[in-house]
Design a protein that fits this description.
Strand order of the largest sheet: 12-13-14-15-18-19-21-22
Number of strands: 24
Largest sheet: 8 strands, parallel, barrel
Distance between the termini: 42 Å
Helix content: 25-40%
Oligomer: single chain
Radius of gyration: 33 Å
């Protein structure tokens, strides 16, 4: 490097005088206003001085400001640093001189010395801050928030820039545009109204989206929720859950009737193993051809899936047999059925990993790429492009900023959270259940029989800390498989479950169950009177259904029976939130949880971006706290 370039590098000290003594020739001096040497030396240290001596043609370098004089002199073994105040020598020590490295031809950056960031970890986690990295004369990377690109006074080799990056920069822009959202973030439907009207309204008013948890909720209550949400969301985005019900197929049809009546713009279809007329009828109602021949579907479907063969059905246009049935029933016109061949059943596919409730415990890192690849193959086959190309998001296991960033880093178009929102102010469950959730660790989960699919042995993932639901429900399912009727259960075993699980005689349970089904679906009573095993299933399902209700209302006498759908994400969130404002239950709102996770994920994205540029990321940078 030239003497002029050395002077530029040493200008960081803002000294009155700079002297460079070459190995051969006369010293070179540069004078300035000075006044900043003491402060600058405390900030940047000796590295710029030592760096000049990496030039084999330089023997000594000195900077001075008033009585303060700092010099580095080349020696046979390296260099010697001296610091003097007037006539007093306060520092006199050997220093290492790094090997000579070619400076190359740039690029160059001229940092503003006053903008130096000395705590890189904190700087990376400040998602609104720009960080410019340079390599100083000592070969060390330094970071500044301001400066100019190109050659000039104070130029240093440019190493990279970490630009501001916020939640709005994560995920699919097409997803945000399609649903008019500020972030690619969804609060998922939690059955039983746990994803409550308050939760849906608060998310909509925050520029985000949630789905009301209509599964297991009486249709009369669902209708009241529809009225309340429509009145409260304004122009915000919202939707309702459509839970597959293999036992009572008519419930899906009546739910869709209600959704179409009130103009529900989106549904979250969950627990589906295949397509049925109800979800297809919802999707295609009102389908029409717009300007330029574009197919317009007023109704949007989010499909939560954990198996490629199920995703395949939602990614393709509706099958002809269902379309023919809907045309025959008068639910669609022939023209609408023809238009349906040009659009997928679901535009948004949520890869459901290890979630609470119904789950196959799929590993996210396997499931997401598989569904993305399937989406791409089907899109090419069906000619989807632009607004008709489906998006693939992720749900299940997302309880920390690191997990959320991991999903986005793998190309997820959006993220969907569930378990963590149960412990929010807006969640439609009891304070007792919320308190139990806030104490959970990630391993405090278990699987037990699903209330809605008891007979086929389907499972749900639940909170195990403080509850015996999983074990007790499993005991009932074992009895269901082992015996043909309640009467066939050995008297001793029957007495045990009546005392410890039902807390009343099974005859009394049946009396209440019979009255319920006589009003809801009399065919179930008729079948039970002829089929002892079905009667047993209905009685056992009474317990499974009530356990959710006891949790929602906070029945203290039934706390050990609480059925609280919960995945490992809840415990992960609790661990991450410890020591932050979100540690306390009263500070947890659904939009607040979303902001914490998304802002933290953005910080992780900045750390990853720095690494990708070859910036030396400090230890601890991956431990993102409350941003």
């Amino acid at each position: 490097m030239s003497i002029a370039e050395h002077f530029d590098a040493l200008s960081v000290f803002d000294a009155q005088a700079i002297r460079i003594v070459p190995v051969a020739g006369d010293p070179e001096d540069l004078l300035g206003d000075g006044g900043g040497l003491e402060t600058a030396f405390e900030r940047v240290g000796q590295a710029p001085l030592v760096g000049v001596l990496r030039d084999a043609l330089v023997k000594e370098v000195m900077v001075a400001d008033g009585d303060l004089q700092i010099a580095v002199v080349r020696t046979s073994v390296g260099g010697r640093l001296s610091v003097k105040w007037g006539d007093q020598l306060v520092v006199d020590e050997d220093v290492a001189i790094p090997p000579v490295r070619s400076a190359g031809s740039g690029p160059w950056f001229r940092p503003d010395p006053a903008s130096e960031v000395t705590d890189l970890r904190t700087g990376l986690h400040d998602i609104d801050q720009t960080l410019h990295a340079i390599t100083d004369m000592g070969g060390q990377q330094r970071f500044y928030t301001r400066g100019l690109y190109g050659r000039g006074v104070g130029q240093q080799p440019y190493a990279g820039t970490v630009r501001p990056l916020g939640p709005q920069d994560l995920g699919s822009e097409a997803f945000r545009r399609a649903h008019r959202l500020k972030w690619a973030y969804v609060a998922g439907a939690m059955a039983g109204g746990i994803a409550s009207t308050k939760l849906v309204i608060s998310m909509a008013n925050a520029g985000l989206i949630s789905f009301y948890g209509a599964g297991g909720v009486p249709l009369e209550t669902v209708e009241e929720a529809l009225k309340e949400i429509k009145a409260g969301v304004g122009d915000g985005a919202w939707g309702f859950n459509l839970l597959h019900n293999p036992v009572e197929a008519g419930v899906e049809d009546r739910t869709v009737d209600l959704y179409l009546k009130y103009g529900v713009p989106r549904i979250s279809a969950s627990a589906y193993m295949g397509l049925g007329p109800a979800v297809v009828r919802y999707r295609l109602s009102g389908i029409h051809e717009g300007p330029g021949g574009k197919v317009i579907c007023p109704n949007q479907v989010f499909a939560k899936v954990s198996r490629p063969e199920v995703a395949d059905k939602f990614l393709r246009p509706a099958p002809k047999n269902i379309l023919d049935q809907l045309v025959s029933d008068g639910a669609l016109t022939q023209q609408q059925a023809e238009l349906a061949a040009r659009v997928p059943v679901a535009m948004d596919i949520t890869a459901e990993a290890d979630s609470g409730g119904h789950t196959d415990h799929r590993p996210l890192v396997v499931l997401l790429p598989a569904l993305q690849r399937l989406r791409d193959e089907i899109s090419a086959e069906c000619g989807y492009e632009g607004d008709t190309r489906p998006r693939v998001g992720v749900g299940g296991g997302l309880g920390t900023p690191a997990a959320v960033w991991g999903a986005f880093a793998m190309g997820a178009d959006y993220v969907l959270t569930g378990s963590v929102n149960q412990a929010s102010a807006e969640a439609g469950t009891s304070d007792m259940a919320k308190a139990m959730l806030t104490e959970a660790q990630f391993f405090d989960v278990a699987t037990g029989p699903a209330p809605d699919m008891f007979e086929i042995g389907a499972k749900v993932q639940v909170l195990s800390r403080g509850s015996m639901y999983a074990q007790r429900a499993q005991r009932l399912h074992d009895l269901y498989k082992a015996y043909d009727s309640i009467e066939a259960i050995p008297a001793k075993e029957r007495a045990r479950v009546e005392k410890s699980i039902f807390m009343k005689p099974l005859d009394e349970v049946w009396a209440g169950t019979e009255a319920y089904w006589a009003e809801r679906d009399p065919k179930q009573v008729d079948r039970a009177n002829k089929d002892g095993r079905h009667k047993m299933a209905l009685c056992f399902r009474w317990y499974l259904g009530m356990t959710s209700r006891w949790a929602r209302v906070g029945d203290d006498g039934r706390k050990r029976d609480f059925q609280i759908w919960c995945g490992p994400a809840m415990g992960a969130f609790n661990q991450w939130a410890a020591g932050t404002p979100l540690q306390e239950l009263e500070n947890r709102t659904c939009p607040g949880i979303a902001a914490a996770l998304m802002r933290g994920a953005a910080a992780h994205a900045r750390v990853a971006g720095a690494r990708a540029q070859g910036i030396a990321v400090p230890v601890g940078a991956d431990a993102v706290g409350f941003v």
